Amino acid sequence: MYDVHTHFIPEEVIEWLKENKTIVNAKWEKKDPNKDEFLVINEKWGFELKKSFIDENLYLHEQKNIGVKHSLVSPIPQLFMYDFSTVITSELSRVYNRSLANWTQRETDKISALATVPLNNPVKAAELLDEAMKLGLKGAIIGPGLPEYMLSDDFFAPFFEEANKLNAIIFIHPLLCEDPRLKKRMMPNLIGVPWETTVCATDLLLSGFIDKYPNIKLLLAHGGGFLPYQIGRLNKGYSMWKNVSSALQAPPIEYLKRMWYDTVLWNEGSLQYLINTVGEDRVVPGSDYPFDLCTWPPQISGEKGIQSLLETNVNA
User: Mean pLDDT score of the chain, rounded to an integer?
Assistant: First the structure.
């Protein structure tokens, strides 16, 4: 079994955070005596820094113990650092990417990895994506945009042009939604996270992005948010409104089938609907390990999806 949605923080990244803790306002807080310390960056998106996030041996042991043959490792969204200067974001990206590349070279059979890039500077992001893929990384994990720009905006064109040229996997992973209505009962995580993916992915689909950058392999976290489950509404809008159909060469359902989706859904009915809608070759096993809301192990083996996304023979 493969797992395309896992997260890890190399030792070198932790060292960088400690050295630059004043600049990025990094804090290690003991909130619960029964849990590990929480890491908080710039007063938001704190999370429990479990040992499985930072201990290579433990990570690989847990992977083997649960029956995962190979994991695609991603940096964590809390360390995208888009709200800092390009200098800071680029510096941490390089540390993160080189550390993951070194790990993948030591454990080629067990892990591969994605990069993080300074999306707040798309020209620099393109440069770092190229560097990372030359080191052996498969592409990059990015957030759903910036406060002032959607990913379909021309602002990001330098990055996506490079990703298209490199046939990169671009894993779109949401950040916590800051909608003021979602302040209670963990709703920023429960529905805010998939909502961010929904907005981002719908914008990309309707903008003509997929035709413009056909070589990018867009991977959507958490089963694509709510988008696949409302595709009928998009198809209806396509048939009714010119400003929905004008940028598209086919109905929205056809573009839905040109992206990839992980299985972090926790519900067999939802997962089966997704497979039926987009096809087995577009659904890939993912867990979101080691965050609290992980599906560990992934719900399916997803051989066809893995073969199409990673271009590898899962039975080799």
Answer: 93
Crossing angle of helices 86-106 and 122-134, in 10° steps, is 10
Which residue reads 């043959």 in tokens? 69
Other CB atoms within 10 Å distance of the CB of residue 153: 14
Question: pLDDT tens across 221-247, in order?
Answer: 999 999 999 999 999 999 999 999 999
The proportion of the chain whose per-residue pLDDT surpasses 90, expressed as a percent, equals 81
The residue ranges of every structural domain in the chain are: 2-11+72-310
- The residue with tokens 């519900």 is 267
Alpha carbon separation from 96 to 100, 110, 137, 179, 229 (Å, rounded): 6, 19, 11, 30, 35
CA 42 from chain centre, in angstroms, equals 21
The average pLDDT across 146-166 equals 97
Question: Residue 176: how many CB atoms within 10 A of its CB?
Answer: 15
b (16+ CB within 10 A) / e for 234-264: bbeebeeeeebbeebeeebbebbebbbbbbb
pLDDT tens-digit readout, 248-262: 999 999 999 999 999
User: Quick one: fold of 2-11+72-310?
Assistant: TIM Barrel (3.20.20)
